[in-house]
Amino acid sequence: MRVYVLHGVNLDMLGRRDPAHYGSLTLPELEGKVREWAEALGLEVDCRQTNAESKYVEWLHEALDSADAVIVNPGAWTHYSYAIRDALELLQVPIVEVHLSNIEAREEFRRISVVRELAALTISGKGADGYREALEFLSEQ
Ligand code: DQA
Q1: Which residue's CA is minimally distant from atom 12 of ligand 1?
Q2: Taking a C-beta distance cutoff of 8 angstroms, is the pair 6, 81 a contact?
Q3: Does any ligand 1 atom lie closer than 6 A to the CB of residue 122?
Q4: Is the C-beta atom of 72 inside 6 A of ligand 1?
Q5: Can you tell me the distance from the alpha carbon of 115 to that of 130, in angstroms, rounded to the nearest whole number?
Q6: What is the band of 75 on the pLDDT scale with cuts at 50, 70, 90?
Q7: Which residue from 88, 68, 92 is spatially nearest to 78, judged by alpha carbons?
Q8: What is the extent of the structural domain holding 110?
Q9: What pLDDT shows up at residue 119?
Q10: Minimal CB count within 10 Å: which of 5, 29, 37, 59?
């Protein structure tokens, strides 16, 4: 099973963003853990990050023909990007939405996720472990 793990806007700044919300791992450290967990579960992962919404949408289009599942953390795009939502809607494979912080327990605007109803599972507020849970869930599909 080939899983795309797609990080969106500002997630390249992990390690410098508020550790109370996002933990202290940098994105390369987080992706390293994701690769280890995936390998242990027999999954192949392709981890990417971009600050360009159009690039993110293009990766989702690419996933149509290349991925068996997708893990998305679109960052702030989660809360308003109908373009990303529309691209996710094209996918026939399982989608897991992951957030490091608990988006339900923060500012009002973060409680809205325009992608949530397309996700087979949403994991929020579990830090890096949320990605392990997402991979475990996908390995059981
Ligand atoms: C985030 C939560 C979003 O509200 C925020 O804009 C992010 C990261 C998270 O992983 O907790 O950039 O998706």
Answers
A1: 75
A2: no
A3: no
A4: no
A5: 17
A6: very high
A7: 88
A8: 2-139
A9: 98
A10: 29
> Sorting pLDDT into bands at 50, 70 and 90, what band is 14?
very high
**Count of CB atoms situated within 10 Å of the CB of 29:** 14
Instruction: Please tell me the pTM assigned to this model.
Output: 0.97
CATH number at residue 63: 3.40.50.9100
Of the candidates 114, 138, 140, the residue with the CA atom closest to the CA atom of residue 4: 138
Q: How many domains does the chain have?
A: 1
Looking at the CA of residue 106, tell me the nearest atom of ligand 1: 4
Opening angle at CA 43, ends 127 and 128, nearest 5: 5
Please compute the mean of the pLDDT values over residues 42-64 and round it to a whole number: 98
Cα(9) to centroid of ligand 1, in Å? 9
- Centre of ligand 1 from the C-alpha of residue 44, in Å: 25
Nearest Cα to Cα of residue 74 among 64, 66, 62, 82: 82
